[in-house]
Amino acid sequence: MAVVEFRKVSKVYHRHPSRPFFYRYLLDKWRRAPGERFYALREVSFTLEAGETLAVIGPNGAGKSTLLSLIGGLSEPEEGEVRVQGRAAGLLELGSGFHPDLTGRENLAVYASLLGMSARQLRQRFEQIVEFAGIGEFLDEPLRTYSSGMILRLAFSVAIHVEADIMLFDEVLAVGDQAFQAACLARIFELKRRGCTFVCVSHGAELLKRLCERALWLEEGRVVRDGPVGEILEAYQACQAANART
Amino acid sequence: MRGFQYGFLLRNLILRDFKIRYRNMSLGVFWSLLNPLVLMGVLTFIFTRVFPSPAIPNFSVFVLCGLVPFNFFALSWVSGTTSLFNNAPLIKRVSFPRLMVPVAVVLANGIHFLIQLALLVGFVLAAGYGVNRHWLWLPFILGLEVVFVCGLSLMSSALDVFFRDVRYVVESANTVLFWLVPIFYSFSIIPDQYRTVYQFNPVAAVVLACRLILLENRRPPFSLLWKLAFVSVTAAVLGLAVFRRCQRKFADHL
């Protein structure tokens, strides 16, 4: 069963020379010339089956994050069609919504509910989340006393205990020390076995190879290649090396 | 959004807002009380010593009756308007019902409103006005004010995403309304031809109704109540419609 389906999806951003103030908006409407158009994605098509893990690779500005935000339902395409079955939970930036003056416990509750957890689910998984994050006695301290690693571990731990059908990772896999990374990978494999679908954006080739089966190579908003992760990564790295030499 | 736990999320967002505001202040929630008390003192000084208005007995309680509903309106409308922009990282990166953001901010201000209402009730009783059966109308009337502010904030916060000028419009509107709502003057001195217009302003209607109930032991006339209900519900419906239309584009414009 296809959980994610993209059909000729294009995403356009309008570049404005300045902030679109009201007069600017009226001016654009009047002249019918709305700024400069910039394609973040151009006619991207692919389908993702349940339980698949997809790596999205490509240079900066290739449209990787835009792709994730379309799957996550954060924005909508200008052209084409995006179909998503089930709930997508994004880990697009760890700790969005965390506040330094609130304690770890309070931030945990806010973040969990933002990601769609119910009060009952949170009660059931609370111990597990705290233990996984390994923040121990800091739980009731304000977040500003945390190290950046602890904040990321807390956020990651919450996100990974949300039972979504599709998990989106944007450059957030390289969190914490070796032991924590190993625990994360173990948890991700456990979720995979239960049929959870993953889409990962990362520049860490080794991690992607271990985690994903399939890769989508984007360049300037277009799909360059789509196939098994090893093959695509190899081709991508060869291409990058060639670019670096010239 | 299917299967989303609205209640739990809303509760957490309201508590977050409320806690952030007072976590690091030594006086904490007393700031909620201080602001209306200071304004009450100043206005009482001016309108009993500088421009005396002898027609109004107990001027300090009278003015507090106007200040408390107005303060809630002004503060929650401004903070509701900028709420989406202030939570931009969240809106760009986490998919949750966007509606929750301005509504939670307004309701968090509602907690302060309740604290200030307790202060107002204290003053009313201390001044010798008794409790009467019309007090039962208060939750309905104040509830309508919350509905009205939610509607306005939904609309203005959605528009503020696209045009950042909206927040200044709201601030100016609040300054104008401070004079146009009968806070430090009585409704009875307003010339007849403007009275209907005044009653269609829900903030003025709430102030009037509160004064009738708390200070005059009278039920507010139904002609006032239906106008209040009509405008508040219309604002909420309109706000919801505007918000729903705009929300698809929030992540791209923040």
Textual characterization of the structure:
The complex is a heterodimer of chains A (246) and B (254). Chain A has helices at 22-31, 64-71, 104-114, 119-133, 148-160, 178-193, 205-211, 229-245, and strands at 2-15, 36-49, 53-57, 79-84, 88-91, 166-170, 197-201, 214-219, 222-228. With 246 residues, chain A is of the alpha/beta class. Helices cover 39% and strands 27% of the residues of chain A. Chain A has two domains: 2-87 and 165-245, P-loop containing nucleotide triphosphate hydrolases (Rossmann fold, 3-Layer(aba) Sandwich); 97-163, no CATH class. The longest helix of chain A is centred in the last third of the chain and has 17 residues, at 229-245. In chain A, the strands form two sheets. A six-stranded mixed β-sheet of chain A has the order 5-6-7-3-8-9, with helices on both faces. A three-stranded antiparallel β-sheet of chain A has the order 2-1-4. In chain A, strand 8 (214-219) and strand 9 form a beta hairpin. In chain A, helix 3 (104-114) runs parallel beside helix 5 (148-160) and helix 4 packs across helix 5 (148-160). Chain A is built from eight helices and nine strands. Chain A starts with a strand and ends with a helix. Chain B has helices spanning 6-22, 30-50, 59-81, 83-86, 88-93, 100-126, 138-162, 166-180, 192-199, 202-216, 222-246, 250-253. Helix content of chain B is 75%, strand content 0%. In chain B, helix 2 crosses helix 3 (59-81), helix 3 (59-81) runs antiparallel to helix 10 and helix 7 (138-162) runs parallel beside helix 11. Chain B has one domain (6-253). In chain B, 42% of the residues are buried. At the A-B interface, strand 5 and helix 3 of A face helix 1 and helix 5 of B.
The CATH homologous superfamily of the largest domain in chain A corresponds to P-loop containing nucleotide triphosphate hydrolases
Mean pLDDT of chain B: 91
Beta-strand percentage of chain A? 25-35%
Strand content of chain B: under 5%
The average pLDDT value of chain A, as a whole number, equals 85
Number of helices of chain A: 8
The helix/strand series of chain A, from N terminus to C terminus, equals EHEEHEEHHHEHEHEEH
Structural classification of chain B = mainly alpha
User: Largest sheet of chain B, if any?
Assistant: none
Biggest sheet of chain A: strands side by side, in what order? 5-6-7-3-8-9
* Uncertain spans of chain A: none
Radius of gyration of chain B: 19 Å
The secondary-structure element order of chain B is: HHHHHHHHHHHH
Relative helix content of chain A: 25-40%
User: How far is the first residue's CA from the last residue's CA of chain B?
Assistant: 21 Å
> How helical, in percent, are the residues of chain B?
over 70%
Q: Which CATH-level-2 architecture of the largest domain in chain A?
A: 3-Layer(aba) Sandwich
Count the strands of chain A?
Answer: 9
Number of strands of chain B: 0
